[in-house]
Request: fold
Amino acid sequence: MKIHDLYRNINNEKLILIFLTSSILALSLAYVTQYIFGLQPCQLCLWQRKPFFVIIFLATILYIAKFLKKDLKKTASFLAWIMILLFLINAKIGLYHFGVENKWFEGLDSCAGGIESEIDNLEQLKLSLKKSGYVISCDKAEIKFLGLSMAGWNIFYNIFFAAFGIISKHTAARKIIPKLIFKKGKY
Reply:
């Protein structure tokens, strides 16, 4: 079996199931590192979770509608493209975050990772902490695996699934389009 044959057998519903599973896996890993290993996320880490939540939501809606016996072939195709776009957006957020960690880009104000500098006494310090909470700095990687932070791995993860989806959609289109264009007797 060739790699090309693998992509040929993936329809929109299977592709969305793969996207759903990969999003659940990514969020599970993020929450395990947060709640079991105690690594607190910064603001950009939290932003990188949002596209995964949207993918899970869209896939869930699609499967509920399918359960209700709705014909959703065109909708599934559209949602697959939306999910591919969400993976690309997430890769871009991850690239920005990776750039902030490596001092290529300036971080956001919400990623300052500190408290107000104009504090004169203990009461102002308490008030500042209550007001803003503890902010995790976006420019420091909490953990690295094989030399890459989680933001770096998130870039590769999202690009992989976006590329997988694009190749799958392209292969499926190559099967369907010739049938539509070259109908018998037309050309």
